Amino acid sequence: MTLLDVAFAHPQGLAGRLGAMIMARFTKQRNLWTISLLDLQPGDHILEVGFGPGVLIQELATRVPEGFIAGVDASPLMVKQATRRNKESIQRKHVSLREGSALTLPFEDNLFDLTLSANSVHIWPDQLTGVKEMYRVLKKGGRIALVVQPVWAKTDQEVKDVGADLLTWLRNAGFQQTRLEFKTMKPIASVCALGIK
Ligand SMILES: C[S@@+](CC[C@H](N)C(=O)[O-])C[C@H]1O[C@@H](n2cnc3c(N)ncnc32)[C@H](O)[C@@H]1O
Description:
Strand order of the largest sheet: 3-2-1-4-5-7-6
Oligomer: single chain
Helix content: 40-55%
Order of helices and strands: HHHEHEHHEEHEHEE
Number of domains: 1
Largest sheet: 7 strands, mixed
CATH superfamily: Vaccinia Virus protein VP39
Strand content: 15-25%
Radius of gyration: 15 Å
CATH class: Alpha Beta
Shape: globular
Number of helices: 8
Mean pLDDT: 96
Structural class: alpha/beta
Bound molecules: S-adenosylmethionine
């Protein structure tokens, strides 16, 4: 694995701690934009896949006071850090975080109103399997949002190409009313694919 892998894609050790500090510090604009697209309802049951240091989980918890937020991440280090960051909400059973894979989500069918993932789907070993898992755990009529801010991209067109892949995975997994949103931001734009089960 490269240094970037152990810092961001599969955070572990010292590099993972440093990566988590960067992710926690520099994702606010993307997280707030993502939230603006989610049509959040106070009682929503939400699942975030690949939550990293748990900053978006924390933002969601403040906006869905009567709901429930679950999270799955493959990195034990990120589960530990996000658990620390969301300690009070976890104690109140408003948030529940666990280690697990996007490819085999540890939940029964038809459970959530909303599933989302931010800057994680491109890392999974099999994107379509993961997106199908998100479909499976959503209730009928539930929403999905897949956000990517591809820091490796050099142009807006490259970001839009990433968005086209996200849309393909959503459609192939069975989602309806799929659409893309695009937002210019630093250091590179973000793209979000949305759909309904
Ligand atoms: C680049 S970080 C993004 C973290 C956070 N969502 C953000 O936007 O800052 C990618 C995260 O996806 C997680 N991840 C990678 N592969 C995964 C998989 N197969 N299943 C679940 N999580 C995974 C990593 O552990 C890491 O926390």
